[in-house]
Amino acid sequence: MNLPEGLADSFGRRIDYLRLSVTERCDLRCAYCHPGRHLDGDSADVLTADDVVAIADAAVRLGIRRIRLTGGEPLLRPDLEAIVARLRQLDGLTDLALTTNARALAQRARPLAEAGLDRVNISLDSLNPHAYAAMTGGGHLEPVLQGLDAALAAGLEPVKVNVVLAGAVSLKPPDLASFVTLVRRKPVHVRFIEAMPVCSQTTYLPAEGVLQQLSQFGVLAHAVAPEGGGPARYFRLDGSQGTLGVITPLSEPFCDRCNRLRVNARGDLLPCLFSPQGISLLPALRGDHPVRDLMALLQQGASAKPSRYGDVASCSGLVAMHVIGG
Length: 326
Ligand code: SAM
Ligand code: SF4
Fold this sequence. Notes:
TIM Barrel; twelve-stranded mixed β-sheet; 10 helices; 30% helix; binds S-adenosylmethionine; binds iron/sulfur cluster
């Protein structure tokens, strides 16, 4: 089968990566992401498993090679393994990843790996149980650490850890020290991410300051990016199994290298993280020719990508990140 090279946007960027949100429900309340107080119950997800597979199928036919399942919290979907197994069958998909808060990963890592998941990114903003609880609206740290170990044991590698630098959280040296200890002991890749201002609680904290603080732990040598690449810059401390990295969408935007489309949990295609409005995929999904119509909409979404996020409407009024998918 001849596979296409990827979608091109109006600025010559090759679009080969899809972030696909499978739920907007979540069992945590990270302030920079999910401002609501009420924890989600059993409310139904908009996209069915068939919808998720149909969107992915159309995307892969157009040359998307990498798909990340995100949310909300994807592990809240009991059918996640079934979805992964179906996506794994798509000819041309080379990388199938998951972003998760890992609360339930200890039990799900092996079944997900067996279903065909390649790797995971785990959100873990602090290794201090009290700070973690404060930042996540009451989350417990221990199951997350068990989930991280289970991901390593199941071979869902490279395991990356996302630490959002939200202003509410001051990453003091002791906390950085615990992340340094983590990468010294385990082959994980910790990335400090500048918080994007998608909801009002978010305060911007530049990643450069973290790099400066990290240099007190030794020489930070530039490191090769682990599988999956992306916009992070990685560094290795001598003797560490893993790496430390920064993702700097605000201090050093990487829009010129943007290679992604997003579908949010409501079935809207977002040309850019900051797109004020998405293109609803629901009519195509519920119509008579879903694959053909989804392919047309995905092409339309790629063409609608702005050259940089500053070119789209201001972020005020955007829905929160747990709907967009990060
Ligand atoms: N619940 C899963 C999790 O937390 O990993 C997946 C969904 S979450 C929205 C996806 C990613 O977006 C997480 O790594 C999270 O830290 C990140 N994120 C959420 N809000 C953000 C913000 N305002 N700026 C930057 N990253 C954010
Ligand atoms: Fe939930 Fe993930 Fe958002 Fe935290 S970052 S509230 S875990 S969706």
